Amino acid sequence: MTRFLAKRIGQALVVVALVTVIVFLLLHTVPGGPARGILGPQATAAAIAAFNHEHGFDRSLPEQYWMYVSGLLHGDLGASYTLNQSVSSLIEQRIPKTLVLTGLSTLVALLVAIPLGVWQGRRRKGLTDYFITTLVFIGYATPVFFLALILVIVFAEKIPILPVQAPQAETLAGLFADSRGLVLPILAGAIASVAVFSRYMRSAVLDNLAEDYVRTARAKGASERRVVWLHIMRNSLTPIVAMLGYQLPVLFSGALVIESVFNYPGMGLLFWNAAQTSDYPILLGAVLVIAVATVIGSLIADILQAFIDPRVRGAIK
Amino acid sequence: MNRSLRPSLRAARPLAVLGVAATLLAAGCSSGGSGTAPGDPANGGTPQQGGSVTFAMPPNATPNWIFPIATPGHTQAYNGTIRQQVFLPLYVYDGTDTSKPDVKAGAAELPKYSEDGKSVTITMKDDLTWANGEKVTARDVEFWFNLIKANKEKWATYNEGQFPDNIAKFTLVDDKTFTMDLTQAYNPDWFTANQLTRMSPMPQKAWDIQEAGGQVGDYDRTPEGAKKVFDYLIGEAGKLSEYATNPLWKVADGPFTIKEFTTTGQVTLAKNPKYTGEDAAHLDTVTLKPFTSAQAELNVLRSGGVDYGYLPALALSQQKTIESMGYKVEPWDGWAITYIPYNFNNPEMGPVFKQLYIRQAVQMSVDQDTIARVIWHDQATPGYGPVPQVPPGSYLGEKQKTNPYLFDLDKAKALLTSHGWEIQNGVATCTRPGGGDDQCGEGVEQGTQLKFQLLTESGSTETDNTMQELQSSLSKIGIALSIKSEPLNSVLDHSPVCKPEEAACSWQLSFFGTQGSWYYPAYPSGEDIFAGDAGTNLGSYSDPKADELVKASTSSTSPTAMQDYSSYLAENLPVIWMPNPAYQVSAIKKTLGGVVQDPMAGMTPQRWYLVK
Fold first, then answer.
1. Which among B69, B415, B2 has a CA at the least distance from the CA of B232?
2. Which residues of A touch B153 (CB under 8 A)?
3. What is the pLDDT of residues B300-342, one digit of tens each?
């Protein structure tokens, strides 16, 4: 296991390093550079030259990359060109808010989707299965934006029981103090995920129902409840766990659409706006965070799978 | 604000497309509000002292600067709006009357120019004090001037040859008065509106320090000292999270102080109890609220969560619903012009664009009235020249007042055919090259086809529709227009000032005016966009008479200089004049009085009040 971990962490470091190189190169090959975008059409050639000099764009690419990496190794992600703040402080502000939103959405989705998938799997091809499948497909097919808007119109305007926007507080305590405001954004985020998770769960349950161990368990006189919730569910969780690992970067990268509809500035919006304004340091910082989340997520997924599935455990020793 | 495309709004459009479904859905689902409208100040009602008001900022406008000298990247419109409530500039203009400054909102009495226009004397107002009790003096202006002079290259609004380069000498006359000798004669209107508005007294007795905890001195009077002081203050200005607490920023002389300035862009201004001027705030607090998208703002507006907000373009159909909820819906006109520059240096089409009759034919094919009325739902104003068409003021030339090129496709087509163009397969082709009166014009070769490429900004349905309308009209006179949409920054990147031999000169026409192409300071002269050597003369328009008129408009003292310039350019067509969209369509609670929608995008929240 230790060897496995060491190997995976080594791989992860290489992947992250490669990601920084690729993103850095891609950004810096954009013609014109960020100066025009940041300084606007009125900027004089001298102002653009001064901006490029100040941010090192007049140096060679390897030199610029080295400057970036050496800053990174000292924990310095640079400063945003447009927001008058350091990238690390921006990410520090946004990540917790984003994680509250995406984390709770995913949690809600799982709490609904796992039992739903199991239940549907057992009642395959029944009327209720078809009915729920239809609902789930509608949830999956509806653009999040549209869904969010319907939620706002129904629950904040027609039946005004919930606020139209997410809590505006800066701190986590403040966010939870106004927890009613979190309901709609979390719901909007959860509905599409319910569809995905429950479908995976349903088909995994279907596969497992036909397995020999299920027949054996039944033959040995295990109660149906025990067969379903202990044997089948545990074995059906493998694909969900694998998906969850890859969900981690999604949690960190934020939910652009929900953030924009519910006035909740998180990572998704930070990244999107930075892309619009060519704010390179933010783009690099956000990509780095997402890259790290991706490799950690896949590592965690592997380890969790090893815990659930002895076959995997055997393979990674 | 400075002349420019409004940077805060340049970031505002990313999610506009997403708004389409939303707005349509919301329009269909809304069925009126309470139907009651509380006291409307316009119809009477009693103004109150105190109270709080929330103002909605455009999507992703994130105020990020408080120091009166902005460095690059910190010039968003709302920075200026907030700053001038806290630190009064020397002069402030209200765009509803661009002929003179709004003296009440500034720090000085009207400037006095010498007869020859080569020096100006300014007296500070007598009643203004800083929050630390010190009077606002001419020395405070000198402090600002010295810092700018020693650090001009770091100043976002610095243009070579303009402020501070055009000041030969700054002299303190007495405690309240100073004189500036200018390097040449300037038009007083231009100088006050476009140069003096940049000046802002700063509390020298509190800020003239070189390091944290340092002693106050006269360090700004040497260039080295001024550099150190500047670096220290810029360093402090970089600490955005301390704007509401840093003692430096507490030394205000304006009607408001900063109560809250969050890193996500929410700013709350609180009435300054130590303000001693004549323009004190009525309200206790004004909160400028940031929004992640126009849809988020619309949702909050529909729930009554803001007092002064806006309707996104696609939600204009909801006007009645919003009004029934106690709002007035009013377009906020911008002191701006909107246009499509021709790239006169484009190797293929440059020679074609240089022919005035071609530009006339193109202009006659722009159905501005229909575009403004139908596509922009009446929230844009047709523009016929280089001076903003509304509000009409003394700068509009006669020619520009009345559209010299009315929409007339037959006439436009006749202009082409009479100059040797034949329409073949729907595209005009030059059959009579040469410089004669009935020939295509100098430099236009036989067989040249009128096929133009237009680079336009993406993200706005109105702009897309406008360009399609233009394409359709031009096709009727034999001009084939191909349209390529890109994000705004990319459009600007791809349409630089260029020389014919450069690869970057491949662009032909470029549009970046969904929110107005160019916002002017109070005096709408064209030295930055239409002078031959101007930095933002993107298409390299060059005309000796235009240059002369631009120069006269900034340096001659003749009152008609601007009108002559306006008339000439309206006729000479350096660009394609397009309808200018409103700055925004505002929704203002009927209980909020004293609001003036300043076309220059400024605000005077100190004059807002609530009515019972």
1. B69
2. 46, 50
3. 999 899 999 999 877 887 889 999 999 999 989 899 999 999 9
In the prediction, which pLDDT does A31 show? 61
User: A44 vs B295: CB contact, 8 Å cut-off?
Assistant: no
Q: With an 8 Å Cβ cutoff, is B14 touching chain A?
A: yes
Interval B360-378 mean pLDDT: 94
Check B73 against A39: CB less than 8 A apart: yes
Q: Examine the pLDDT at A160 and tell me if it is beyond 80.
A: yes
Closest residue by Cα to residue B449 from B471, B478, B477: B478
Query: Residue B73: what pLDDT?
Result: 75
The C-alpha of B482 sits at a distance from chain A's nearest C-alpha, in angstroms, of 23
Q: Is A211 on the interface with B (CB under 8 A)?
A: no
Please report the pLDDT score of residue B494 as a whole number: 85
CA atoms within 13 A on the CB side of B32: 4
* A-contacting residues in B 41-80 (Cβ below 8 Å): 60, 62, 64-65, 72-75
Nearest Cα to Cα of residue B536 among A202, A186, A36: A36
Model pLDDT, residue A42: 66
Chain B residues 502-541 within an 8 A CB cutoff of chain A:
512, 528, 535-536, 538
The residue-averaged pLDDT of B285-298 equals: 92
% chain A with pLDDT above 70? 95
Q: Are A62 and B97 in contact (CB under 8 A)?
A: no
Q: Which residues in chain B touch residue A162, judged by CB atoms under 8 angstroms apart?
A: none
Mean pLDDT for A222-247 is 85
Cα–Cα nearest to B280, from B19, B606, B60: B606
- Euclidean distance between CA atoms B587 and B308, whole angstroms: 6
A254 neighbors A271 (Cβ within 8 angstroms)? yes
CB-closest option in A43, A93, A264 to B263? A93
- Cβ of B299 within 8 Å of Cβ of A259? The answer is no
Q: In chain B, which segments carry CATH 3.40.190.10? A: 20-66+248-333+586-610
Q: Is the pLDDT of residue B473 over 90?
A: yes
How far is the C-alpha of B188 from the C-alpha of B200, rounded, in Å? 19
Does the pLDDT value for residue B13 go beyond 70?
A: no
pLDDT value at residue B40: 45
Q: pLDDT digits over B488-530, tens only?
A: 777 887 888 889 998 889 999 999 998 899 989 889 999 889 9
Residue B321 sits at the chain A interface (C-beta within 8 Å): no
Domains detected in chain A: 2-73 (no CATH), 88-316 (1.10.3720.10)
Q: What angle do CA B356, B358, B360 make, to 5 degrees?
A: 70
State mean pLDDT over B89-106. Answer: 89
B85-207, superfamily in CATH? Dipeptide-binding Protein; Domain 1 (3.90.76.10)
Instruction: Place domain B20-66+248-333+586-610 in its CATH homologous superfamily.
Output: Periplasmic binding protein-like II (3.40.190.10)
CA distance linking residue B337 with residue B575, whole number of Å:
11
The model carries a pTM of 0.84
Asked if B516 and B336 count as a contact pair (C-beta separation under 8 A), the reply is: yes
* DSSP string of B493-530, one letter each residue: HTS----TTSGGGG--EEE--TT-SEE--SS---TTTT
B 449-488 residues with CB below 8 A of A?
487
DSSP B75-112: --HHHHHHHHHHS--S----TTSTTS--GGGSSBPPPE
Instruction: Give me the CATH code for the B336-581 domain, please.
Output: 3.10.105.10
pLDDT at B116: 87
Give the residue among A115, A105, A84 at the shortest CA–CA distance from A247: A105
C-alpha distance across the termini of chain B, in Å: 33
Q: How far is A170 from chain B (nearest CA, A)?
A: 8
Q: Do B18 and A36 touch (CB under 8 A)?
A: no
Q: Would you say residue B241 has pLDDT above 90?
A: no
